[in-house]
C-alpha cells in the first residue's frame, strides 16, 4: 500500500476546474468538497484536500475516496435514527444528494475533554457556554456527552463556539427544532460510540451538520469520518490517561499536533507538509477506514481526469 500511496502523490484529486454542462451551471469549492448544484439536488465530490485550523494545507492520496466511503457506511448504519440526504453513489468519491436548507451551526458532540475544549479549559474558558467542574484532567471522559456547537465561518476564517442557549435566543434555530437536533445528535453519537467500541475504538468527539427537507430534520455532509471526528484506541486509553500521555489516535489530530509543534495554529504561514507526512496521513486515513468498517481498503483506479467526466 505504501508503494501505491507514494505513486499517487503527484496525482491526487484537488478540485473540479471545469464542469460539463450536463452537471449544471454552479460549482462551489468548499474546504474539502466540490459541490455541483443541479437545481433541486447536488453532486458532492470529496477531494483529496486536507485542512486543519480552517486552512487548506495539502492533498492526501486516496483521502477523498476514504471519506466518501466511510460516510456512506455510517449513513447506512444510522438511517434508523435519522434520514440523510443520500440519493445515490456516483463514483468512489462522489455522491448525488438531496438539496436542503442546512442549519447555520455545526453541532459538535464531545465525550472527552480533549483538543480545543481542553485548551479552553486550561485557560479558564467555558466550552460553548458550559462551565466544567474544576480539577478535570486531559482526555478525561465526561459523565455524559456534551453538545458544544459552533458557528460556520467563511473559508479561511475560524468557526466560533456558541452556546445552545444563544443559538435559540439569536434566532439561528427555533427552540423546538433545536431540541430535536440535540436528541438526534446524542443518538447518533451513541450509535457511533457503540459501533466504534465493537471495533476496538473510542469515538471521542464528532461534528454533525443537519438540514431541513420538506419540513423534516435530516443529517447531511459527512458523519463519523477522520475529518469530522476523533478516534482513539480503546485498549490503551486508560493507561495513557492515568500517565497523562497522548492517546493513540486514528484520525487527523496527529497532524494538528504536528502543526502546533511547528508553532502553527491557523494564523500566519503554515509549515510545508512533506511527502513523507502526506504518506503517513494517507496511511492513517486508510487505517481508520479498515478499523471502522472491518473491510480492507483497495483504492479505485479512478484518476482525477476520470472523476471529472463522471
From TrEMBL:
<protein>
    <recommendedName>
        <fullName>Phosphoribosylaminoimidazole-succinocarboxamide synthase</fullName>
        <ecNumber>6.3.2.6</ecNumber>
    </recommendedName>
</protein>
<dbReference type="GO" id="GO:0005737">
    <property type="term" value="C:cytoplasm"/>
</dbReference>
<keyword id="KW-0658">Purine biosynthesis</keyword>
<dbReference type="InterPro" id="IPR018236">
    <property type="entry name" value="SAICAR_synthetase_CS"/>
</dbReference>
<dbReference type="GO" id="GO:0005524">
    <property type="term" value="F:ATP binding"/>
</dbReference>
<feature type="domain" description="SAICAR synthetase/ADE2 N-terminal">
    <location>
        <begin position="27"/>
        <end position="262"/>
    </location>
</feature>
<keyword id="KW-0067">ATP-binding</keyword>
<dbReference type="GO" id="GO:0004639">
    <property type="term" value="F:phosphoribosylaminoimidazolesuccinocarboxamide synthase activity"/>
</dbReference>
<keyword id="KW-0436">Ligase</keyword>
<dbReference type="InterPro" id="IPR028923">
    <property type="entry name" value="SAICAR_synt/ADE2_N"/>
</dbReference>
<comment type="similarity">
    <text>Belongs to the SAICAR synthetase family.</text>
</comment>
<dbReference type="Pfam" id="PF01259">
    <property type="entry name" value="SAICAR_synt"/>
</dbReference>
<keyword id="KW-0547">Nucleotide-binding</keyword>
<comment type="pathway">
    <text>Purine metabolism; IMP biosynthesis via de novo pathway; 5-amino-1-(5-phospho-D-ribosyl)imidazole-4-carboxamide from 5-amino-1-(5-phospho-D-ribosyl)imidazole-4-carboxylate: step 1/2.</text>
</comment>
<dbReference type="InterPro" id="IPR001636">
    <property type="entry name" value="SAICAR_synth"/>
</dbReference>
<dbReference type="GO" id="GO:0006189">
    <property type="term" value="P:'de novo' IMP biosynthetic process"/>
</dbReference>
Amino acid at each position: 500500500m505504501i508503494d501505491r500511496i507514494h505513486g499517487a502523490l503527484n496525482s491526487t484529486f484537488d478540485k473540479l476546474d471545469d464542469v460539463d454542462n450536463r452537471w449544471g451551471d454552479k460549482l462551489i469549492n468548499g474546504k474539502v468538497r466540490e459541490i455541483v448544484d443541479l437545481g433541486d439536488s447536488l453532486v458532492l465530490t470529496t477531494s483529496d484536500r486536507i485542512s486543519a485550523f480552517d486552512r487548506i494545507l495539502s492533498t492526501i492520496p486516496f483521502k477523498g475516496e476514504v471519506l466518501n466511503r466511510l460516510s456512506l457506511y455510517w449513513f447506512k448504519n444510522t438511517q434508523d435514527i435519522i434520514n440523510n440526504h443520500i440519493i445515490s453513489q456516483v463514483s468512489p468519491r462522489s455522491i448525488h444528494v438531496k438539496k436542503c436548507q442546512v442549519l447555520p451551526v455545526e453541532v459538535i458532540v464531545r465525550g472527552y475533554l480533549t483538543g480545543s475544549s481542553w485548551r479552553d479549559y486550561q485557560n479558564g474558558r467555558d466550552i460553548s457556554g458550559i462551565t466544567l467542574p474544576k480539577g478535570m484532567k486531559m482526555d478525561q471522559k465526561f459523565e455524559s456527552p456534551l453538545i458544544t456547537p459552533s458557528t460556520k465561518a467563511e473559508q479561511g476564517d475560524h468557526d466560533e463556539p456558541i452556546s445552545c442557549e444563544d443559538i435559540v435566543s439569536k434566532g439561528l434555530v427555533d427552540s423546538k427544532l433545536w431540541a430535536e437536533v440535540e436528541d438526534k445528535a446524542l443518538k447518533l453519537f451513541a450509535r457511533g460510540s457503540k459501533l466504534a467500541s465493537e471495533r476496538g475504538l473510542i469515538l471521542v468527539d464528532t461534528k454533525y451538520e443537519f438540514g431541513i427537507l420538506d419540513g423534516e430534520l435530516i443529517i447531511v455532509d459527512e458523519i463519523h469520518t477522520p475529518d469530522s471526528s476523533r478516534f482513539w484506541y480503546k485498549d490503551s486509553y486508560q493507561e495513557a490517561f492515568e500517565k497523562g500521555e497522548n492517546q493513540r489516535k486514528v484520525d487527523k489530530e496527529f497532524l494538528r499536533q504536528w502543526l502546533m509543534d511547528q508553532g502553527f495554529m491557523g494564523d500566519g504561514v503554515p509549515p510545508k507538509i512533506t511527502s513523507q507526512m502526506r504518506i503517513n496521513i494517507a496511511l492513517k486515513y486508510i487505517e481508520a477506514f479498515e478499523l471502522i468498517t472491518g473491510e480492507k481498503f483497495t483504492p479505485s483506479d479512478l484518476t482525477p481526469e476520470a472523476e471529472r467526466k463522471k
